[in-house]
Each structure stands twice: as structure tokens, then as C-alpha cells.
Design goal:
Elements (H helix, E strand, L loop, with lengths): L2 H15 L6 H17 L4 H15 L2 H4 L4 H17 L14 E6 L6 H14 L5 E5 L7 H11 L3 E2 L8 H15 L3 E5 L8 H14 L3 E7 L4 H13 L4 E5 L8 H10 L3 E5 L7 E3 L2 H8 L5 H11 L2 H12 L5 H13 L2 H6 L9 H6 L4 H12 L3 H5 L6 H11 L3 H21 L4 H9 L9 H9 L53
Parallel strand pairs: 1-4, 1-5, 2-3, 2-4, 5-6, 6-7
Antiparallel strand pairs: 7-8
Helix pairs in contact: 1-2, 1-5, 2-3, 3-5, 5-12, 6-7, 8-9, 10-11, 15-18, 18-20, 20-21
Length: 514
């Protein structure tokens, strides 16, 4: 979402940080570039003016002039102002109210409202252990109620039975009654949307609000619509009174202006962001972390949290025991590749690592995309169980069969086998408790310890992760690479992106350069 803006700002800051001293003209020139970058990103003009004025006020003062590293100080000021513009602290959906807590979902048709409702319900059920009831109040869009019912079945969340002929207010009253009788903690009311804002829509929203008395009213807005999303938020807030915003399609290639402007213009916090089509592709909105991503500082905290949720601790413990004995077959490699996919694939993980944005051209040239994981998994799945356990059996005829079965060239099979061989050799050398892997093994299977987000954020801002930091040892890494001298033991690994001894993925060499 913020790739273009991030690239622009990175270029501006590289010029600043490369100078020993900064004059007022240098700062003004940089601010003009920042102003252009924000306007091109579709940030609201009043917000751009306010942002650059605040940065200029601080950047031309003694705070920067007397600084040992004035360029870095300007970057910090811009970071702080970005955080302020985005809303200082993240505000999750508030459930601190007498049960059942009613949450009303509003928005235009096509913004992803029903899908987001199901994602929130899934999160409350699985992560927060709440008993959730979903109810569709959309009697206008064909099959809208059936859609929510199917999403409920897919995510093991209860939905209110559909009764033909009932209006939105009747359904809302029935949902609240059913929730009280059924002992539900949360009721999610998925209201009807329109192609555009109209008077009947607003009247309907007001009637549902009066009937259900919701604790939260969440506006679901498509982040790709730019400033229209900001105008939409203002209109809904004036007529209905929203308490927060959920932005969908944040994984798209939009310019990001809606996300940057929304809180500053409306005064309502962005609470959630949708990062994909899957039911678990929903994240809390953390202003500091978003600012870090925009400025290329990475988002180690979110990466750690995502890893803690995605990785199966029991599976990790089994893997740890095998690795300690020096065993690492192709089944294990396939499991590691699947874990990488759960963490958002190559692009998802790389985008959260400090300084990786500047390596984008090299990474693109190496062909490291998410399809690579799928190809490699397909190759392994085309093998027999015996071949996966004993790769030495794979001679020319078998390789040809596997290549044909997985739709790749024999050279791709050879690359995968070479990568596996390098990793297996390293496991044998390091599996006896020496070095990074030994430290990693000590914590695997022991659960996810408490991680201090502030400590992680400070390390991310510094652009490196010191190896001596004893952080999430419970994270099953397994794939060597990320976890060498620059990152703490236990971080999930990317082959070829670690220390000098780490093997590389095809196209990335031996991983000697970070």
C-alpha cells in the first residue's frame, strides 16, 4: 500500500542523512519534496499543510541544528509527526460493556463489510475466546444474508437464522434477544450498504442504532478509494456517529492517502486493517508500526506477533527434536515453506524487516517472489514419501518425473535439492547445541514469552537487531538465514538472508551480504 510513498521518502532522507550539517534551505527543500510525496499519495491537502508546518517548526530549530546527526534527527521528527497524524496509539475494538456487546458494521456496498464482519467474529472467537453471534440486516442485496451464513459456517461462528420478510430493525431486535437468551458475549450487526450515500440509507442506519444501542459503530471503508473514503467517513459520522474505522484492501497497490488522512480529518481512530482475502487477514491498526513501515524501518513487532499466531508449537517441538539429532528431510523443508506462507510469504515478511526496502531491486532481480514457495512445495509434493525421507534416491529419471509432475524444469528440482543439502549439512553441524541453532532449540516448544514491544520498536528504528538480545526464543525458526549475527535467536528464518555460513535460496548466493 505505502510502497510508492516509502520509496519517495527514502530517497529524500538518503540525501539528508548523507550530509554532515543541514542548513535551513536544505530542510525547506526536503520539506517541499515531502509535501509533493504526500500529495501524490492522495493525503488530504489540509493534512499535508499541517504536517509540513509542524515538521518545519521543529526541524529548523535548535533541536536539529545542535544535533550530532541532523539528518537522522529530521527523520525522527518526520516519524513522530506521522505517528501523530495516524493517531498516536492504536485503539482496538472496545468490548468493555455489559454482555451482549453490540457492534454495528456500516459502509457502502462493495467495501468488504460482510467479509470484514466475519473476520472480526473469527478473531473474537479464536483469539479472544468470546462467544459471538453474527446477524445480517442487509435485506436489499441479493443473497447477502446467505453470504454471512456461509462465512459463519466456514469460521465456526454462529449466525442468526434467516426469516424471510423481516426488516432491518426487526432483525436487530431479534438478534439482541437471541444473544441475551443464548449467553453470547458479542453481537455483530452487518447492516445494508448502498452504491452511494442516500437519505434512506442514513434513516435505516439511525433506526437500527436506536433499536440495538450498539457499543461500537465501525465504518468499513475501501482504502483504494482515496479521499472519497475520507468524505464517506465524515458523512457517516455526522449522520450516525461512528466510533472507529476498518480499512479494507490495505494489501492493494493504492497510494495510502485514505489511511494517512482518515484519523486526522475525522478524529475517529482506524481500528482495524484488512490485509488480504483470507479470513485471518486482519490486523490491529498500530500508528507507530505503520509509520515505521512507511519510513523503511520495518515492523519487527508485528512479525513476531504474526509468527506467534501462525506457528504450531507442537509441530515446532517435533521439528526441534529432529533438528537436534541432525535430521532434516524434504518433509521438514516443505513444512518450513508452508510456515513461511502463513507469515505472509516472502513479500509479507521482507516488508516487515528493517532496511529491506532499500534492497528491493536486488530482491526483485533475484526472483524471490511468493510463487517460488508454491513451486518448491509442488516439487516436494510430487515426490513419493520415501523420496522425501531419502533425497539420495533422486537420480535423473526420478527428477524428470518429479519435474513433469510439478510443472517445472529439472533445473528447478536440482536447485531445491541443493538448497536442502546445504541446510541439512548445516543442521548436522549446528544441531549439537552450538551457535544460533542451539540457542533456538533451547526455546522451541516452550511457548511464546512476553515480548516488550517498545524494545523491539527501538531496535527496528535503529535499523538492526543485536544478536545478544534474548527475545522470542519460543519462536520456531528452523529455516536458517534470519537469525544470524544481525537478528536474535528464535526469529523465523529466511534461507540466504542470514550470517556468513547460511545457505542461500536460488538466486541469492550464499547469504554473505545482508
Amino acid at each position: 500500500m505505502f510502497e510508492s510513498l516509502s520509496d519517495r521518502l527514502s530517497g529524500i532522507f538518503d540525501k539528508l542523512t548523507g550530509r554532515g550539517a543541514l542548513s535551513e534551505n536544505d530542510v525547506n527543500e526536503a520539506l517541499r519534496e515531502i509535501r509533493r510525496a504526500l500529495i501524490e499519495a492522495d493525503v488530504a491537502l489540509p493534512i499535508v499543510r499541517s504536517f509540513t508546518d509542524k515538521v518545519r517548526h521543529r526541524a529548523v530549530g535548535a533541536e536539529v541544528v545542535k544535533s550530532v546527526t541532523p539528518g537522522q534527527m529530521v527523520v525522527k521528527i518526520v516519524h513522530d509527526q506521522l505517528v501523530e497524524m495516524l493517531g498516536e496509539e492504536g485503539q482496538p475494538i472496545d468490548l468493555n460493556a455489559p454482555a451482549p456487546v453490540a457492534i454495528m458494521m456500516v459502509g457502502l456496498q462493495g467495501s468488504g463489510k460482510t467479509t470484514t464482519t466475519a473476520k472480526i467474529a473469527r478473531r473474537f472467537t479464536q483469539r479472544d475466546k468470546r462467544k459471538v453471534l453474527m446477524a445480517s440486516l442487509d435485506t436489499r442485496r441479493p443473497a447477502a444474508q446467505e453470504q454471512l451464513k456461509i462465512l459463519g459456517e466456514q469460521n465456526d461462528v454462529d449466525t442468526l437464522p434467516i426469516i424471510e420478510g423481516q426488516g432491518p430493525v426487526e432483525i436487530a431486535n431479534r438478534a439482541m434477544s437471541a444473544a441475551k437468551l443464548g449467553g453470547y458475549d458479542v453481537v455483530l450487526l452487518d447492516t445494508a450498504g448502498r452504491i452511494h450515500i442516500d437519505e434512506p440509507l442514513m434513516v435505516e442506519m439511525a433506526e437500527v442504532k436506536a433499536a440495538a444501542n450498539p457499543h461500537e459503530i465501525i465504518l468499513v471503508a475501501d482504502s483504494l478509494t482515496g479521499q472519497d473514503a475520507v468524505n464517506l467517513a465524515q458523512n457517516f459520522d455526522e449522520r450516525v456517529g461512528i466510533t472507529g474505522i476498518a480499512l479494507t484492501r490495505m494489501d492493494g497497490d493504492g497510494r495510502g492517502g485514505a489511511a494517512l488522512s482518515m484519523q486526522a480529518v475525522t478524529g475517529k481512530p482506524v481500528k482495524l486493517i484488512g490485509t488480504g482475502e483470507k479470513s485471518d487477514a486482519l490486523e490491529d491498526f498500530h500508528p507507530k508500526r505503520i509509520a515505521d513501515r512507511i519510513l523503511g524501518m520495518g515492523d519487527i513487532v508485528s512479525l513476531v506477533e504474526k509468527a506467534a499466531e501462525a506457528i504450531d508449537a507442537e509441530q515446532a517441538a517435533k521439528m526441534a527434536k529432529k533438528m537436534q539429532k541432525g535430521h532434516f528431510d524434504l518433509e521438514d523443508l516443505a513444512e518450513q515453506l508452508k510456515q513461511m506462507e502463513k507469515l505472509g510469504g516472502m513479500s509479507g515478511m521482507m516488508g516487515m524487516l528493517p532496511g529491506v526496502g532499500k534492497m528491493k531491486k536486488q530482491i526483485d532481480a533475484a526472483g524471490l517472489d511468493d510463487k517460488m514457495f508454491k513451486r518448491q512445495i509442488a516439487i516436494i509434493q510430487s515426490m513419493t514419501p520415501t523420496e522425501r525421507k531419502k533425497p539420495d534416491l533422486l537420480k535423473a529419471s526420478r527428477k524428470k518425473r518429479i519435474a513433469s509432475g510439478s510443472g517445472v524444469e529439472v533445473a528447478e528440482v536440482n536447485k531445491l535439492l541443493k538448497m536442502h543439502r546445504q541446510m541439512a549439512d548445516m543442521m548436522k553441524k549446528m544441531g549439537k547445541g552450538k551457535g544460533m541453532l542451539g540457542k533456538l532449540m533451547g526455546g522451541m516448544g516452550g511457548g511464546m514469552p512476553d515480548v516488550d514491544p517498545k524494545q523491539l520498536e527501538e531496535m527496528a528504528k535503529s535499523g538492526q537487531m543485536p544478536s545478544g538480545v534474548d527475545l522470542p526464543k519460543g519462536l520456531p525458526g528452523g529455516m536458517p538465514g534470519l537469525g544470524g549475527p544481525g537478528l536474535p535467536p528464535g526469529m523465523p528464518g529466511l534461507p540466504g538472508l542470514g550470517g556468513p555460513k547460511m545457505p542461500g535460496l536460488p538466486g541469492m548466493g550464499k547469504g554473505k551480504k545482508r
